[in-house]
Specification:
InterPro entries: Dimeric_a/b-barrel (IPR011008), YCII (IPR005545). The longest helix is centred in the last third of the chain and has 18 residues. It contains 2 helices and 6 strands. The strands form 2 sheets. Strands 2-5-1-6 form a 4-stranded antiparallel β-sheet. Strand 3 and strand 4 form a beta hairpin. The two termini are 21 Å apart. 26% of the residues lie in helices and 33% in strands. It is α+β, with helices and mostly antiparallel strands. It has one domain: Alpha-Beta Plaits (2-Layer Sandwich).
Length: 129
């Protein structure tokens, strides 16, 4: 099963520049997950100031350029894993957040784990031919 893990945090907290040691430890964790064959993709995202929101409300589509001031937290990165269970996704996520505890004291954020649905979740109407 595939799991998408979203990291949410306030933009530019603690000065906004993560310590280089944090990046080194994240790279080690990513290398471990890649060697284990479970990490499919991961990346950081640009700040919301560089983003665009496209919304549908009351039958109308609107486009708004960032930053999005009403958001306390934004999605700052993601990772896509191929794992056996939700519990395994929680463990990889816990390890990722622990690296932040260890190498960026005071940083705060949260992760959301979502299983990616495939054709098997929707029945024959969405099955590949």
């Amino acid at each position: 099963m595939r799991y998408l893990i979203l990291l949410k945090a306030a933009e530019n907290q603690l000065g906004g520049t993560p310590p280089p040691e944090l990046f080194a430890e994240i790279a080690k964790l990513g290398e471990e997950a890649t060697k284990a064959g479970v990490l499919l993709d991961t990346a950081g995202l640009t700040p919301s100031a560089a983003g665009t929101r496209v919304s549908l409300e009351d039958g109308k589509i609107s486009v708004t350029d960032g930053p999005f001031t009403e958001a306390k937290e934004t999605i700052v990165s993601y990772a896509m894993y191929e794992l056996r269970s939700q519990e395994e996704a929680v463990e990889w996520t816990r390890r990722f957040l622990q690296v932040h505890v260890d190498f960026w004291p005071g940083w705060e954020g949260s992760s959301e784990i979502r299983r990616v649905m495939g054709p098997e979740d929707f029945g024959a109407a969405f099955a590949p031919e």
